[in-house]
Amino acid sequence: MIRHLRSPDLFGPIDRLPALGTRMGERTLEVLNPSTGEVLAELPDMGVEETCAAIDKAYVAQPGWAGFTARERSDVLWRWHQLIIDHADDLAAILTAEMGKPLAEAKSEISHAAAYLQWYAEEANRVYGETVSAPSADRRMLVIKQPIGVVGTITPWNFPASMVARKISPALAAGCTIVLKPAEQTPLVAGAMFALAHQAGFPEGVVNLIYASEADAVGRELCTNPKVRKISFTGSTEIGRLLMRQCSAQIKKVSLELGGNAPFIVFDDADIDAAVDGAIQAKYRNAGQTCVSANRLYVQSGVHDEFVEKFVERARQLQVGDGFARGVDIGPLIDKKALAKIESHIADAVAKGGAIRCGGKRIGTNGTFFQPTVLTGVTSEMTVAREETFGPLAPIIRFKDADQVVRDANETIYGLAAYFYASNLKRVWRVAESLEYGMVGVNTGRMSSEAAPFGGIKQSGIGREGSRHGLEDYLEMKYLCMGGI
């Protein structure tokens, strides 16, 4: 079904995977390769009826799964982790075929996904309560933690494997059951991962998968169905607002990892070569299609020209092409809408005085490839400085005043990730504490880890994923007051 896949039965027909918990509908959903436009697979296109059935299965299964000991849940997660490792090459090939990212990046993502499963297999054993000093001798007061219940999860297309693991592994470790809707552009790797979850031994109904092109209808059902106690979503701020409104009638818990407009600041005292390396990573990884991608590059006047010269040279060396080809650094954008968006941002910047230093054009007529692009002379009035591009476009803004650049960096509704390079320790602490972002990379262009809390503030989201804090988001706190002791 999918080229380069050594084990075509890994993904398997949906009706042979009872862990998926849904039936095949009459409609089908085509999955395309963004590099070529070819149809990779046809899947059952599910809707509200199948979503309700999956929710019901998860609801029935949840008390039993919560009744497993922490060690028993941990053991199943460990087995799933090992199966992901054993099939890493196949999973990476599926990911590259449906999403387009270079195979090396896809393999790295699969490893990252497995790391989350490993982390929460361990954290499942570390759900602790507490005792509280009682006001009288005949009472005992304590706090216990219990799983929320059924969790509806919606994952994005840009990291279709790691986002699945990052969201559902803490929920499963806590004793929750799952209904997952992956992005319609990239559902295949999620299907393969769930097939492996079934092999790992999750009981019937614990993990449930919905393939659907009608994201609105499925999302609404997940938000409004009273059997679902929590929604976890990664995607745009606009959709996050919509889901939050739909959940509000039931005061349903939400975890939202939303859009970003990450600043990348280079101060005069920075190691310029290291800053260029970090900026290349933070900007062009996954063709710039990451929520933590460096979207605005601020470079102080004293090092601006040196940084631009070195950065442009590095950007020109990046190879664009099919993710399966040797030596490729950047794959295609996800679709033609993404191409149109990056072109509109470039046109707006040029019309307002910006200069294209390299790139700026589509590559070829097939696929959705775009040159790594660098703009200079960028100002705050340009769209590219205010909106998330989600593509391989690096706008560079010259600045003089160190205090003002922090204010400019914070002048946005978003607060997901920020980066800066500096050597002076006083400046490092002051800037790190002043940036209004949930995550700050100091002298690094890459900071995601299963051991650290991932998430934003302001309109970039609610809650955290990863670390011990990610497990807490799937637990309810219950206070017990015992009298007559």
UniProtKB/TrEMBL annotation:
Residues 27-479 form the Aldehyde dehydrogenase domain. Gene3D superfamilies: Aldehyde Dehydrogenase, Chain A, domain 1, Aldehyde Dehydrogenase, Chain A, domain 2. The keyword Oxidoreductase applies. Keywords: Oxidoreductase. The keyword Oxidoreductase applies. InterPro entries: Ald_DH/histidinol_DH, Ald_DH_C, Ald_DH_CS_GLU, Ald_DH_N, Aldehyde_DH_dom, Aldehyde_DH_Superfamily, Succ_semiAld_DH. The active site is at E257. It comes from the Bacteria. Belongs to the aldehyde dehydrogenase family. PANTHER family: SUCCINATE-SEMIALDEHYDE DEHYDROGENASE, MITOCHONDRIAL (PTHR43353). This is NAD-dependent succinate-semialdehyde dehydrogenase. It comes from Mesorhizobium caraganae.
